[in-house]
Records
---
Amino acid sequence: MLFLLFLGVAVAVLGVVAALSVLDSRHPELRWQWDQIDLGRTSLPPDFLWGTATAAHQVEGGCDGNNWSRWEQSADVHGRPRIRRGQRSGAACEHWSRFREDIECMRALGVRSYRFSLEWSKIEPEPGRIDREAVAHYHEVIDALRSAGMRPMVTLHHFTHPLWFEDLGAFERAANIEHFVAFGERMFREYADGVDLWCTINEPGVCVTMGYVLGRFPPGRADPATAATVLRNMLVAHARVYRRLKALPKGEGAEIGLVKNVLQFDPYRRWHPLDWLVARLLDAAYNRSILGFLEDGEFRMYVPGRVRRVESYPDGQGATDFIGLNYYSHTYIKTRFDPRWPLERMLRADDVITDMPYPIYAEGLYRALRRVSRLGKPIIVTENGIADARDDRRETFIRRYLYALSVAHREGVDVRGYYYWSLLDNFEWAEGFDMRFGLYAVDFATQERRLRAGSRAFVERVRGEGG
């Protein structure tokens, strides 16, 4: 009897070891020996699209009619401000009035494209009422960019939408999707003569995770079931607006894509089955649910004991001309026996940490590029950058991540552009103005822009001086 018990335990252990071995080989945590790598070897084609990026609420100022403006003025259940140190976006970088100055900053970088978002709440402050002055403003921005030899890339939804849309339930209600599709169609008809690069929705996974799971973005909920509904509706909204725009005049000639933030979930203890299990479940919810929707038109969401959804939406399959890839870092997952929160994010002692804080992990950009390339669509890195107020890690970050991008390109990944986040220090959502992502430092008292020393590595590469 004891022998049979021992045999059963041994078989179970061997099964776990075999499963861990398979997981380890399928999902390796890539690590390069950076002290042995020549970071100057970053060859990319002459037509590679170099750019930089911002989002309206973070830089424009005067965004007082959207969901984030209300969020910034509210408090949590304990009376604490929603934004670090009670900050508000306010005038931000005054990019609305200083965009010509900022285009000159872009010209100094040598970039050939600028990604920015249209502030829906300024353009449509009430349902169906279009503010022609706001529309004219973005015409001025687009015309100024083209005159400067830069290709505009427009994002329709970058975390913000009008208060009236929020009060209708935003993407919690499928009936509201048509409001966003109608906005997208109006904007395409308005600007398609000057814009051929379009992003529909920026980082739907971040919107949902931060707004409906962690509660750090509006509307500040912790409701996995609603989170699944919102993610499904955002993906359907993307597919609908994509199909609608492609059917319009100039639609076939435009490049329209969804922007996906990829975050790798790596087990902190690669020998631990629970760390692996939770890491794979998180990956399925955060990454595979979105990439799978584009791959086969199926929306799959599974949260143990909370949510299980599988829905078919055939129009989602292939509904993107390119993948906009946002990539910053990865995260280590460690499980623990605490029913209130059974996992924690970990860091390793030898990691170089950004101000956010997460580690510099350039190998992850390579991994993300390889992964999304399986969709068979061109890739544009629409965001990649570092929060570094001291400016003592930015050069390392830039050189390593651009090296990782070049390795993927050399191996055949169809990556066609790279947009550094961000052009300017700006309002970094729940972190306020404390996180300094800008290639240009901004003095928010005087609105002076100053190119950081660490940013010169990017300028050198764009201008062909660094590899």
---
Amino acid sequence: MIKGFIFDLDGVITDTAEQHYLAWKRLADAMGWHFDREINEQLRGVSRMASLEIIADHNNVQVDDPTMMQWAAEKNEQYVRALDEVTADDFLPGAKELLTHLKREGFKVALGSSSKNAKKVLQQLGATPFFDAVADGNSVKNSKPAPDIFLYGAKALELKPKECIVFEDAESGIDAAKAGGFYSVGIGPEERVGHADVRFDSMKAATLFEVKSYFKELF
């Protein structure tokens, strides 16, 4: 039986992708690197350091780890400043409604995000009360597509993977859910999350009624 839900943050609950893009773009411009939205798409669901490695590889940049960490910190400072502008109006359509229904029906809910700023985003949204547990980039060492972050979230909820449904908008996130033995709901296009158990174009379409209809034998 399904007893819990685990949600990615960016692209599922809210969308700070533009803030991420602009922060990376400022760093890249300052360094004289090439960075555009096509490269940015490769960073979806990827940790900060792994994202920086993708950008550096694309620009044939090789430096020592301390320098990489410094650059990642600079990007994060830009991003965190931008998060101050996030408000309760920045829930993706359908996300707050779904979280409200889940809490009303007594399901356990966790966040499973690679972001180390996830708690800050939840606070800005006013979404913290919806979540019984938060698994973020500070919780585990291995980021998606490793299943660690979802396993951490399930453990915090005191549930088994097969008792949880994961909502994800990234290919690596669906891979992580599958690797951990979770049921999965993909949010986004077929080419990105079509390998999820069920896929919706948007959170607005992924209502609790629709999810229950698909996984009806598990409720």
---
Amino acid sequence: MHINEILQSVQRATDSAGGFTAEVSDDWAQGRTLFGGIQAALAVQAMRCLAPDAPPLWSLHTTFVAPLPPGRIRLQTQVLRQGRAAVQMEARLMDGEQVAAVCVAVFGGLRESAVRVEPVPPAALPAREPGPALPFIPGVVPNFTQHYGYRWWEGGIPFSGAKTPGNRVLLRQRDEGALDEAQIVALADAIPPAALSMVSAPTPGSTLSWALEFVRHPAAVPSEGWWRVDVDLVAARDGYSNQDTHLFGPDGELVALARQVVAVFG
């Protein structure tokens, strides 16, 4: 399924207030669960359906509780608080009666402020051809990666035994069309955890929590453009890793920040 088909499949359920359903095909799977980015994007889409007049999204905190298989997805949403400028909402993705993921989002209206600090531009990438692409090999790499193009500039692809604790990757959405809020949410989570680049053999990993913050909201971005993703592994020990991510748009400007906790099983 095209990512827009998935987002457009979000429909109100008739059996509960704040309930929605969606359809996701298995080409968006990651092992035995759905790709976390598409789960978060569905949560944002359902929140938008619940409160279509909500202002721009500024933060999204997601906890992945249990595997969520492809197919018909059930979401339960609610407005936690609506103030004059900010709206806080929650969305739960359900597998039957089991909560699979919990997303809490903050939407906020623009306002005048005396404080303005522009983000520091990223260091220029080395003047050379980008490194290896991540090939889509069914049964070897996650199914969802067929919807994205990857080119490694620094660091290493997963399971390559890289020595540097971080990656610089060029990334784009292969599904045609423009990227707006929900598609950018999915894109921001499409990079494999940096810790998996440092192991030299296939090793399972699972994101436990993921926090995304928007810095700005660009107009809809054509999918042909390449985004830059800088991932820095802050710490890794005792089977867990912590990483920071900076997502830069095709124009080179910072769009979003993320912090992620990953369990590494090996």
